[in-house]
């Protein structure tokens, strides 16, 4: 299998795991290939990767439908744990902070379990639960419907919720980073929520692992150069050296400078 084909199929898998389901047409547009090419990819992926095609879309097969968030949490677990610990070192006891949805922000919450007196403003129920054992913490959650199995809350109420608060730190992730540094998401609601966090935090902290560089998603967010601090597990490939140079003074490599 060619490198191009293998990379494309890895991206298809990542998108379906992230979203649960996506139309064949949306995949073709996202990856800039023909519908016929996507159908061939999907046919082969459905044979052994836990996917199924149904009514013009591809989705997780039944045995995987209830675990996409847990699967994302387990992907590059060591790298995300290192990111969480590095980001947590930036946040002292008594701080106020936003924590967004996502598996890497959850790693930060888990690394903050030793902190006391935090005020945590989040729509990430897993992050709230991770910090709930410390009774000196104050945890503020929005109203709305809990999205399962991700255990988070999205929607207009969340934007209003984040808009009513200010915090010293804003912790958020992203689905992908484009070649020009644009942050990408699969849902525009996630872009709006992250932007509200960034705007209302004194220090914005983007937490991502190196695999997000070059990953495609259709909803456009801010540029990585606009973020106050960026915490990575390690440097991405040389194609992104120009971005790393732009943010070098704000970059924290959790696993050192290894390629």
Topology:
Layout: H1 3-19, E1 21-23, H2 24-31, H3 35-45, E2 51-54, E3 57-60, H4 68-74, H5 77-88, E4 96-99, H6 103-111, E5 119-122, H7 125-130, E6 138-140, E7 146-147, E8 152-153, H8 156-163, E9 167-172, E10 176-177, E11 182-185, H9 188-200, E12 201-208, E13 219-223, E14 229-232, H10 241-246, E15 251-253
Parallel strand pairs: 4-5, 4-9, 5-6, 9-12, 12-14, 14-15
Antiparallel strand pairs: 1-3, 2-3, 7-8, 10-11, 11-13
Helix pairs in contact: 2-3, 4-6, 5-6, 8-9
Structural notes for this entry:
This protein is an alpha/beta fold. It folds into two domains: 63 residues, Winged helix-like DNA-binding domain superfamily/Winged helix DNA-binding domain (Arc Repressor Mutant, subunit A); 183 residues, Rossmann fold. Helix content is 37%, strand content 22%. It has ten helices and 15 strands. The strands form four sheets. A seven-stranded parallel beta sheet has the order 6-5-4-9-12-14-15. A three-stranded antiparallel beta sheet has the order 1-3-2. Strands 10-11-13 form a three-stranded antiparallel beta sheet, covered by helices on one side. The longest helix is centred in the first third of the chain and has 17 residues. The protein is globular. It starts with a helix and ends in a 6-residue tail after the last strand.
